[in-house]
Specification:
Blueprint: E1 4-9, H1 16-26, E2 29-34, E3 45-48, H2 68-78, E4 83-86, H3 88-95, E5 102-104, E6 112-120, E7 136-143, E8 147-149, H4 152-160, E9 164-168, E10 180-184, E11 190-193, H5 213-224
Helix pairs in contact: 1-5
Pathway: Purine metabolism; IMP biosynthesis via de novo pathway; 5-amino-1-(5-phospho-D-ribosyl)imidazole from N(2)-formyl-N(1)-(5-phospho-D-ribosyl)glycinamide: step 1/2
EC number: 6.3.5.3, 3.5.1.2
Active site: 87, 196, 198
Length: 226
């Protein structure tokens, strides 16, 4: 029996179907989860997908953080449930305090959409074990509020503990501090990043590469071997 990975749909989610497809391509079973339903339906992991939940009103992810499903996600994540937040999902994870820091508007005040070069900094999380530390990959990036910020103490702690999961290379697209593209929690079960790995799982689309697929094969292997 294969792993079941839930994908939450919020009002304004854009990439939930793409994420389900990526999960299916990796060999797992995608399970659609609705934001108003607290029941996670016995999934083994959860992805919070990209989009503009609730129109990014108030702050990106600030309203979604209070959706009924998040009550269960927060509880289960603290108990070890693997959770991946992509773009808007990363914003939701910071608003829910499952990951430290926060997201602000891009420093150039424009929406950005491009193929982005990244370096894998931590290949030991539930979602990154199929990468190698130091590996350079290309993942599509599209956001308006993608600038990662945190106080100096938090930044120093993330760096010292190896919790920066991905870093922008060649070009910082949004002004994120320390060129941070993604981070993990202390346990390594919760990961958030702004780029979109679900758009880089087939040669025909996205970057024309499959650099995003290891996110989904990583979690599948962890769950199958657990």
């Amino acid at each position: 029996m294969t792993a079941r990975i839930g994908v939450v749909t919020f009002p304004g989610s854009l990439d939930d179907r793409d994420t389900q497809r990526a999960i299916r391509l990796a060999g797992a079973e995608p399970v659609a989860l609705w934001h108003k339903d607290k029941n996670l339906h016995q999934v083994d992991a959860v992805v919070l997908p990209g989009g503009f939940s609730y129109g990014d009103y108030l702050r990106a992810g600030a309203i979604s953080r209070f959706s009924p499903v998040m009550e269960t996600v927060i509880e289960q994540a603290k108990a070890g449930l693997p959770v991946l937040g992509i773009c808007n999902g990363f914003q939701i994870l910071t608003e829910a305090h499952l990951l430290p820091g926060g997201m602000l508007g891009n420093n150039h005040l424009h929406f950005i959409c491009r193929d982005q070069k990244l370096r894998v900094e931590n290949a030991e999380t539930a979602w990154t074990s199929d990468y190698e530390s130091g590996q350079e990959i290309h993942i599509p990036l599209k956001n308006m509020d993608g600038r990662y910020v945190a106080d100096q103490y938090t930044l120093d702690k993330l760096e010292a503990e190896g919790r920066v999961a991905f870093r922008y290379l060649d070009f910082n697209p949004n002004g994120s501090l320390n060129d941070i593209a993604g981070i993990t929690n202390e346990a390594g079960n919760v990961v958030g990043l702004m780029p979109h790995p679900e758009h880089a799982v087939e040669p025909l689309i996205g970057t024309g590469r499959t650099d995003g697929l290891p996110f989904f094969t990583s979690i599948l292997k962890k769950l199958v071997n657990a």
